[in-house]
Amino acid sequence: MNNSAQRYNLHLEAQHVGFFETPVVVSRLKNGETLMDDLEQSIRRNKARQTGLSRSNIGSWHSDTDMLKWGGAAAGELADTAIKICKRLTVFQEVRPESYHWVVRMWANVTPQGGFNHLHCHPGNLWAAVMYVDMGEQKELGDSGGEFYMEDPRFPSVAMHNTAMRMLGADGNPQQFEVEFKLKRGDLIVFPAWLRHGVRTYTGARERISIAMNIDARRNR
Q1: Which residues contact 68 (CB under 8 A, 6 or more apart)?
Q2: What domains appear along the chain, each with residue ranges and CATH number?
Q3: Distance between alpha carbon 62 and the CA centroid of its chain, in Å?
Q4: Where are the alpha helices (DSSP H) in the chain?
């Protein structure tokens, strides 16, 4: 080996470049207290009338997906806000995003102590979004569980070979298989609908309330 190195005297010039970025936007609603109060009132009224659905939620209440019909003006405003973010993240090769009709399906989640959401994705949509209306009980150290997390979509193929392996990102840090978000009331997170995500077990004593959305774009004729 040493003789080979001396013979060829190789020098390597390399650049670490990150490709195939997965865009995720975390934003905070400003001056949103009235909006969130109105959303909470609508959700609690609806929860009193609906049994709820069973989707990825375990031990928690999941409304129907027609919240735009019963959520009032606040639900419409939230949907419009999420669409604006999606338009900024989206490029269609043949036309502008405004040439599409953007549609939103929205629902509410009310999570008591012990509730969580399995890893899942939202097929048949371009984008998904989640906003937190009420964080429930947040202990002094912030350890009430219920963290929103995402899975690296490349994870299964890597883990099947060696679960200890991590790839270094362009920033020089190891890329983890899952990323947790410490979200707060009024935080709105938007991400590709195919990206698997879930919610850790919530341990707070007071109910936590969130809103989720499926967002898609359909070509105007």
Answers
A1: 75, 76, 79, 104, 105, 106
A2: 27-219 (2.60.120.620)
A3: 17
A4: 2-8, 33-49, 67-70, 72-89, 155-159
Over residues 10-61, the pLDDT tens digits come to: 888 988 888 888 999 999 999 999 999 999 999 999 999 999 999 999 999 9
Q: In this structure, what token pair is assigned to residue 88?
A: 């900024």
Q: What is the pLDDT at residue 142?
A: 58
pLDDT in tens, 103-162: 999 999 999 999 999 999 999 999 999 999 999 987 765 589 999 999 998 877 777 788
Strand ranges in the chain using DSSP code E only, listed in sequence order: 25-28, 57-58, 61-62, 100-111, 116-120, 127-134, 148-151, 178-181, 187-192, 197-199, 208-219
Output the six-digit token pair for 21. Answer: 């970025």
- 204: nearest Cα among 111, 118, 93: 111
Q: How far is CA 103 from the centre of its chain?
A: 18
